[in-house]
Amino acid sequence: MENNKSNIAKAILNVMKAVKGMEKNSKVGTGRNxxxxxxxxxxKEIFNYELEKNKLSILPIEIExxxxxxxxxxxxxxxxKQKQSIFTKVKTKYLLxxxxxxxxxxxxxGHGVDTQDKGAGKATTYALKNALLxxxxxxxxxxxxxxxxxxxxIELPKKEKKQAKSKEIELTDKLVDQILSSTDLKxxxxxxxxxxxxxxxxxxxxxxxxxxxxxxK
Length: 217
Fold this sequence. Notes:
Mean pLDDT: 81
Structural class: alpha+beta
Helix content: 25-40%
Low-confidence stretches: 161-169
Shape: elongated
Largest sheet: 3 strands, antiparallel
């Protein structure tokens, strides 16, 4: 029969039996916005093995992409700084092909955000991972909040005062002295902008005074 897909159906079931679940073994993002995820390399490794074992291959056949670029200015202690964010989302289709010639089309969706040109790569990577996990109904980690908690019951995070990232970058007075020893006004401003988030109020005051001193010369 032309519509008979018993071979590919059997192969899919074998993959589903073999891949019972995957752990969330990586931390995505930082701070309050971070979350547990599954590494793309782990997903590909286990599915590559099982797909090959069951005479299956997967081929990308269609990508529908859209990109939004946002640009804005942020005011720092040393002037305005240009910022941008590139948001890319993709809808994808893949051909799941069996060696018998039988095939089906599966779909994926992904999005990625980056300040430069990596958004498309992030989006397509996530789309393929999503397509594999959902097509073979592979559970990942613990039950998601969306399965056990209504969104109205989740407490909104309280606003906290922004603190300098002293634990991540320790900006010592010695380093500030090195920055201020320069007579290159542009270099001082660039370094000041780079370290602005980790500088103490006293250190910022020293830098401001140095910039004022060089400007009035």
